[in-house]
Amino acid sequence: MLSQPVSRIHLDNVSQSFGKNDNQVHLFSDLTLSIEQGRSYAITGPSGSGKSSLLMLMSGLEVPSKGSCYYINDETTSPLQSLRNHIGFIFQQFHLLPELTALNNVALPLKLRGQKDAINRAKEWLKKVGLSHRLHHTPKQLSGGEQQRVAIARALVFEPNFIFADEPTGNLDTKNASDVADTLFDCCKENGAGLIVVTHSDELAARAQHNFSLKNAANQFISSTSEISPC
Amino acid sequence: MLITNLRLAWQFYRQEKGLSHHRFMSWTQAILMIFIVTLSQTSNSIQNYLTDNLNNLLGADLVISQTSELTASQQEKIVELSQQHTVTKSLSTTITHQGKWQEIKLKGVGDVYPLQGELKTSYSLNEQAQTTLSGPSQGEMWVDSRVLASLSLQIGDRITLADQGFKVTRVLLHEPDRMMEGHNVDMRAMINVTDLDALAFPADLIKHRYLLAANTQQTAKLIAWQKSDLPAAQISHKQGAHPLALFWQRTENFIGLASIILFFMAAIAIEQLTHVHMRKEKYFSAVCMSLGASKATGIQISILKWLFHWALMLPVVLAISALLHAALIHWLTATFSDLAWQWNMLLAAKSVLAISAVLLIFQLPIWIGLKQSSIVQLVNNIELKKSVWFTSSCALAVLFLVAFAYSDNGLLTSMVLVSVALCIGLILSISWLSLTVGEKITQNISGLVPFALFMMKQRLVSKSTQILGVGLCAFLLLFILMLLRDLGNTMSAYQRQHDGNLLVSQATAKQMIDLSSWAQENTIPIRQRKPYMHAKLIGINNQQVSEAIDKPSESLSTFKKSIRLHWSADIPSNNELVDGQWWSGDNPNWQQISIEQEVMTDLGLDIGDQLTFHIGQQNYQFTIVASHAYKPGAGSITFWVQMPASALQHIKAPHYNMASLELTEQQFTLLGDLWQQHPTLRMVSLDELTAHFDSILAMVTQVISGFSVIIILLAFIVVLSSSHALEAAEKKKNSIIMSFGFNKVTCLKLSLVEWITTGLIAATGAISGTYLAGVLIYQSQFSLTYQPDFLWLIGTMSIILAIVTTLGVYASKNSLKSSIRQLLTE
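Structure tokens for the assembled complex are given below, as produced in the milestone run.
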């Protein structure tokens, strides 16, 4: 039996398309799904099937062409934009600020929120992702795997309700990809954050509790639930 | 191959010309080119005008001027060496009429006058000018229209000068030998030379001018004769340079030197843009190389693109320069009537080539960077550190080239460079200190300000360059504005405080005695009183002055005329010893001399050098034993050249005095009697001084305002360029911040805080730099104590802050167009 979800994102009958008139491209149509905090989700599908667009809709950064998206917290429904402060992102290209050390990169969101113990909490998080010995290294001095761990720590340090990760292991070799995936899923689990991963990797997608698969040809959408334990 | 590359370069040039960095680069380069081309063309027009002027306004083929009359044998010599001659005698004097007085330049002319050219007069103010074949008859006086207005005179009125009556019969409109007066604005009057002799003015106050008609051979012989027999005399001839030519050369040099500042700002803007430009060029080169092209192809295309850019910019630059040149000539006709617009194509080509060479040096780092790059470096995006140093070295090389090209005065060049260097050092230190301290202090404080300080500290190098650019622009603007504003205020306040409101610039011993008793009778305090004699520098280390010194300077042009030689046993209370040793009272060696510090620098003199002065009718040699400088607080009457008081026993020459008095408004009316008694007493009231100063200031204001416009334009480009250089990084930073759950308003607020901080640091640096430059330059160039108005400075700082912030945030608008989707798609 799964624990009672704290909050969830709900997409109701949404369609997404871009372009005008004859040049309109439909990514997906009439899609309904829910993302619960504390659970993990993978979005898979071929290039151009609309994975990133779905991610943008779920995070409230874009609005659908049709349908509605909202955030439900303790039965209170509010627009997705109200969730803005409680979501974090992880990118394929890591996107760390090159002039900042690992420690300062992780402390960044806390400093912006005006938290006094930003540096100490950043240190804790870097320790959690196994980089306590790399605190004062700049991104250039870190390997790809290490950079992505810093990015994971940075996304989770301000304890968001949901984490959206776009191809988080896409730039890593198999060994590093596996290690980073372990860190990502473990940390989300520990933090009670919902994790939504866009990926081409079957191995990574298999780690998620739910898998949303988008298919180009017929705008098909397949939702499945895996049997692995929830994070 | 070249044709293919040409086609490719043309295609890429057309694609790139609309890009922001390309546009900013074009503006910067165009501004520099327009400035240099306009300056050289205008200067050339003035020099040409002066040459024409020399030929038309000398009033003779050759003119010899000196204070004393030529001896009989000398007069015989000039008769022998010339075809015809005439003499004019002139002096400054004061004429009075119905209780009013006016200082004038009075000229006595003989029957042969004018020797060459046209003398123009009229019988009334509104009448047309008539060519007059000879000067005034005895008992007549011709005055210029300003004298008529000043003394409310009518044609036919009688005027009194030293108890002798004259009838004003004509309005004096034009004298053919007027050029010899240079650009002085003294009011003028002319009488017959026999009348002038009858007035019996002291001989040493009269300037004698011998106007000679001579052919080329005679001119050469006269020049040689003057050098050997009349070394203290001034000589001007049609084959020589205009007396003002050096002055205008110096003006051009000064403006050129000031352009160091423009080049420095341009260097900052170009340095910022080079980052973006180099990245794009490298990317292009990488694509070419990955497609099998050679490294040389990439460089060749880059060079060709630059050449296309240069060739297309040139017509625009020349057109705008021609328009500006025409506007400047129009404006200058107020000073140089008949100055006409003329375009010197050869000079334009030379200027364009020189500035293109400078732009080429700025461009070199990009091509060198491409030459050093390899596919591996391009793929891994490795920054070539050498290129950064090379860019800075190129910028420095350009600045030194400009300084070298325009420098004619070591002290002024050093002061401009030292002021700029000080300001740079100051702004960099303030940037580092304030960001470090600010970040440390706010480390445990929440909010956007601490975060902005933290980010700026992390990007210290790039931020410092941005702050430096903005700060230098602000410094330059502030300094020139301050110079305009404070110079007038400080000067009048200072003179009022220390010098009284009436300055006596020349009083003979007899006049000084009468002046003292007149002052005592009317209870008028004499603030200062200092004696001097006239001396003309004729030799330096046994060489003629013209042979010893070839660089034009303010000091040299003054030394071409007689200077005031002061004597003093001790160092005057308003002087301080800078170098060497002042003489002691009991030292029997009287042939010692102390020279003012700046004069030493200007003329390249050293302690121990020998100077020969023509004093009275004899030559005297002195050794420089000391160098002195002005010290404020004890009156402003100071002398460039001073000798021991013991020298008076050995030198026979008339003594004069300078003095200053403080008169009440009512007491000014008493001056009329004094002038009637002593028409040659030279006095000038503070009001007249201020009026003269104001007219100079008005001209300087216009020149500086034009210069400010160029600085403001470049300042805008510096801010836009520095913002553009950081745009990619800023955009990424904003997107990342948004990925932490923040919106665009937060990014805007951050940008605002960053630009306010940038503006604050830049303004603080600029104001401190201005203060330092004020102390340095005011003291040495104007002998004034700099007293800044802090309220005015704070007001200016607020304006700078507002403009920088607004412009900065406007320039950052592109970096605010960021989104998380961009991070996803990268």
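Helices of chain A lie at 51-58, 102-112, 118-128, 144-156, 174-191, 202-207. The mean pLDDT of chain A is 84. Further analysis is deferred to the final report.
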